[in-house]
Model the fold of this input.
Amino acid sequence: MIEVSHLTKRFRDRVAVQDLSFTVQKGEVIGFLGPNGAGKTTTMRVLAGFIPATSGTAKVAGFDVFEDPREVKRRIGYLPEYPPVYADMTPRAYLAFCAGLKKLPRGRVRGEIERVAHLARIEDVLDRVTGNLSKGYRQRVGLAQALLGDPEVLILDEPTVGLDPLQIREVRDLVKGLAGKHTIILSTHILPEVAMTCQKVLVINEGKLVDFDTLDGLIAKHLPGRRVTLDDIAFLEEIYSKLVSPPPAALPAEPPAAAAS
Amino acid sequence: MRSVLAIAKKELNIYFTTPIAYVAFMVMAFFAAQFFIGSVEGYRNFVTRISPYEGQQMLERLNLTDVVVTRLFASVGVFIVISAPFLSMRLLAEEKRARTFELLMTSPVRPVEIVAGKYLAALVVMAVSIGIVAVFPVILSFFAKGMKGGSAIDWQTVGTGLLGLFLLGAMCMAVGLFVSSLTESVIVAALVSLIVLLALWVVTIFTLGAEGPMKDLASGMSASEHLMPFLQGRIELKDVVYYLSFVVLGLWLTDRAIEGHRWA
Done:
């Protein structure tokens, strides 16, 4: 569904992503892991067609993101790092606008808005002004936008930022519910989230692919002989710090409280 | 077309839920009213002061449209030039600042659809702004009667005048849209387009003493010189071409600027 081959992105003399190659099958949920500045957002932006790659290609559903941008964009629901919402609009008007951008049939718009509002749990705030909503709600309005039109591929850049633990669980359940039918790439700093929602983990550090495997594969490779269950989150933290250090201090200190949620 | 209308509708939605359009309309209404009252007063003074003998011929040629409406429209021109940058400043700059530009760029729309939607909304706001000015000749027609009992207003001249103002507004909005596509700062967008448009409006004062080609060049470039024939009731091809070429150039450059983001 998603094929990235030898993708490189340079910003003047800084290399953000270097020779990145990976393939995602239809229906898979991929967790994108990496320290800040590792190139997660850049890769997602290239896949969503917001910025071009310096070299290499990326294909979504068989279409090259640079050659056939509109065919690709039609199939992608994208939640950028910062939720792209308008402070002066209500979520309802905003979603109607996005439905127009995505050229959904007029008759379906109202139903679609109800559907995604329900999925993202924003029914209560649909008629409030977005600028007055909390960060968590704005994030969920952005998520609702990505779900609009039921795209085959979802690219979610840190979908759970700004959400409280209960909401994080809701988003997690939402992603799980979408898996199978949709192909999902989501980036996050929250390791439990990866362990609970993603089938495969893609670890990226300083623009380079460090490892791309299933959770079981990662465990077998990096913690040989250890018996872990998926409820045990600490193992992922260990693998992650092995993969992305040095720098040694790159370990994301995620409180175990979040794991309990 | 669907996405063009969606973008235009969203732009209008924001124009009319934020104060910016209302402030621009108020500025337009306030100053147009001042100039209107001033022109009517001037007309009244003039008519009462000239003696019925020597001024008879002049009085016969004097007409309310030329003296009041044309003068009003000529003064309104400068307020279009001043208010347009504030109406166009956030069209694209604000999208970039608020990072909603990423939404537009990752939606299945072509840059030309974004430009068309934005510009359509800008034109509607400009039309409302000019519609406010159009109220004044209507008010005048209630009170002024022509010599033979008909309307004292020459509606054709009013019509061409309004068309000229609209073309001027369309040009200002196209320039403003392009400038707005180049920056993330709405203030910079407003100031730069204000400077460009004001320079085009007053360009002839730079060549006041000059003669020959320099003077011709200046008056050929001047946005105010090209407005005059419209106000006097004439639609001349060169003036229409002048305004429309700015519109086409502005929109084309905006399209290129947005397309350029895909390559940066």
